[in-house]
Design a protein that fits this description.
Blueprint (H helix, E strand, L loop, with lengths): L3 E10 L2 E10 L2 E7 L2 E8 L4 H11 L12 E4 L4 E5 L3 H8 L6 E2 L29 H13 L2 H6 L3 E7 L3 E8 L2 H12 L6 E4 L5 H9 L4 E4 L5 H10 L2 E7 L2 E6 L5 E2 L2 E2 L2
Parallel strand pairs: 3-6, 4-7, 10-11, 11-12
Antiparallel strand pairs: 1-2, 3-4, 5-6, 8-9, 8-10, 12-13, 14-15
Length: 265
Amino acid sequence: MTGARATNTRIVRDGRAVAGTRALPEEVPVALVYNGTTQAVMMATPADLADFGRGFTVTEGLARRDEVDAPEVVTHETGIEVRMWLPEDRAAAMSARRRAMTGPVGCGLCGVDSLDQVIRDLPALPAGAKVTPSDIARAMSGLRAGQGLHDRTRAVHGAGLYVPGQGLVAVREDVGRHNALDKVIGAVGDCSAGMIVLTSRVSVEMVQKSAMAGAGVIAAVSAPTTLAVRTAQEAGQTLIALARDDTFEIFTHASRVTEEGEDVA
């Protein structure tokens, strides 16, 4: 699947209407199924779904990426299943925090069992990569250039992993910003050597998901929420936002941003 479909439209310009077509992003229910049981149903773009399954598994703390057998993507008339198998101990732990949800694309915390699960413990982040202002500019520019689906539809989010000295090693897109991030993490796995880059705002769950993948740096074009900043500060994560052209703001742990070996903090 390409993730987009041509749709007939009427284009009105200067008071005159003409027939036209517009590529629109597809949005379908995607069931994430573990050991035969549905854990979550998310509305998502039907592309890179094996990556989505692996990434969701990691960022939700269900299992490590290497504990997930090759996901099987099964298309039904009403939606898509991503079928995965986990070790029995992981499956048992997962049942303790069962989700059963149909999540709207803007929702990253739907279906948690209690308020206590919203603010969860995050792993200690390694020192990880340091980035320069030019790295940040290249990463954001490259992310935008790598958004083929957005170019066609103007309606999807993008996420990527930038590694200093290598550039963008992965870019994924989805109608849901959380889904796009999960897809990148599922494609790459350990993100500790690089910087997560986002086209969206930084909410708390974006910080949480990035931290679960080991990313010490996260950068986005839009602003963070106060809870995202507080969570990143407590997790030891560098949070960069409002990154456009050669301008950005560092909200937490600025020591990972350097220029010619010197901290810019």
